[in-house]
């Protein structure tokens, strides 16, 4: 487990030139910077993103409030009881194939708010903790979800432009995109087992990930293939980490990378909070970038495959999934 030389750093890109261009060429420059970052690393840091700091702070406070609930109350909100995989995941539930120990993190999932459960639970209503007043959890979390949903959409647009596609292509795969948000708390290092990770090494399976780290709570590390080393990523205030999942790598014909990453909370006595918003695509969408791609897997099939090999999935949900969804 080597560490990288000082000079390697993830690019820090300013999105304001794309959102609010001041002169000709501003948008194109941002597109080119993001293209380079995704080609070289599959990861970058982002400022000038337009998500208000107050929403980020409100979200972190809400996550803190949620995880402070007593264990029995959190377990009553378990995602294993919910057909759409929304709700609470306790520490020790995610064990990746090949890992010696499960993740130490606890998490809480929300997604699009659909009134009824459809498509084997890919779409459905969220689970909201009734014991926390709405203005201390549901409202700030939902407002934040929508803001990062839009940021994820914007990054997708830029990736498509960078690859030379028209923006109308979004219509082909993101009319009703699955956008899942995972709020996470990592226990202090002192409370984890020797060799246990907060989140073990993995690649994100899907589309664009918009990750907020609690400022100053370092712990995320990205695998740099060329150097064969883990690169620590600073947790900076008002700066997002953006990365591409495997689906983007495959849809782009490997032009964009999906990099392996992991989390070890470096603080001995303090928890670390983070929140990842994953912008995928419609459940039945296939590769919109290359109609000749022999792999016709749908977004839903890719998701199921990943949950089966890396993460737990409610047994009920697996049994309700049509067999063709599992053979991708
Ligand atoms: O908490 C973090 O910094 C990263 C989390 C992550 O990689 C994930 O949830 O996929
Ligand atoms: Fe990840």
UniProtKB/TrEMBL annotation:
Q: Which InterPro entries match?
A: DIOX_N, IPNS-like_FE2OG_OXY, IPNS-like_sf, Iron_ascorbate_oxido_reductase, Oxoglu/Fe-dep_dioxygenase_dom
**One Pfam family of this protein, by short name?**
DIOX_N
Q: Which organism is it from?
A: Coniochaeta pulveracea
Q: Which residues form the Fe2OG dioxygenase domain?
A: 175-281
Which keywords does UniProt give here? Iron, Metal-binding, Oxidoreductase
Q: Could you tell me what this protein is called?
A: Fe2OG dioxygenase domain-containing protein
Q: Give one GO term, molecular function aspect.
A: metal ion binding
Could you give a single Gene Ontology term from the biological process aspect? small molecule biosynthetic process
Signal sequence span is none
Q: Per the similarity annotation, which family is this?
A: Belongs to the iron/ascorbate-dependent oxidoreductase family.
């Amino acid at each position: 487990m080597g560490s990288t030389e000082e000079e390697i750093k993830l690019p820090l890109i300013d999105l304001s030139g794309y959102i609010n261009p001041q002169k000709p060429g501003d948008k194109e420059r941002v597109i080119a910077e993001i293209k380079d970052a995704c080609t070289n690393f599959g990861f970058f840091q982002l400022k000038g993103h337009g998500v208000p700091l107050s929403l980020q702070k409100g979200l972190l406070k809400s996550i803190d409030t949620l995880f402070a609930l007593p264990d029995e109350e959190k377990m009553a909100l378990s995602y294993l009881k919910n057909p759409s995989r929304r709700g609470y995941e306790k520490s020790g539930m995610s064990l990746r194939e090949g890992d010696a120990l499960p993740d130490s993190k606890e998490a809480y999932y929300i997604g699009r708010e659909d009134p009824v459960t459809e498509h084997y639970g890919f779409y459905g209503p969220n689970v909201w903790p009734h014991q926390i007043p709405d203005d201390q959890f549901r409202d700030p979390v939902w407002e934040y979800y929508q803001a990062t949903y839009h940021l994820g959409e914007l990054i997708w647009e830029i990736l498509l432009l960078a690859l030379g596609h028209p923006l109308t292509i979004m219509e082909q795969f993101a009319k009703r995109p699955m956008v899942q948000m995972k709020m996470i708390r990592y226990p202090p290092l002192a409370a984890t087992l020797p060799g246990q990770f907060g989140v073990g090494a993995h690649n994100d399976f899907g589309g664009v990930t918009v990750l907020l780290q609690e400022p100053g709570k370092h712990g995320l590390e990205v695998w740099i293939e060329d150097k064969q080393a883990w690169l620590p990523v600073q947790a900076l205030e008002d700066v997002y980490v953006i990365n591409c999942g495997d689906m983007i790598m495959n849809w782009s014909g490997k032009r964009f990378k999906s990099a392996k990453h992991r989390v070890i909370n470096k603080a001995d006595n303090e928890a670390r909070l983070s929140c990842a918003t994953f912008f995928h695509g419609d459940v039945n969408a296939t590769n919109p970038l290359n109609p000749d791609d022999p792999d016709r897997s749908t977004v839903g099939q890719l998701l199921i495959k990943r949950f089966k090999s890396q993460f737990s999935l409610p047994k009920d949900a697996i049994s309700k999934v049509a067999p063709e969804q599992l053979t991708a």
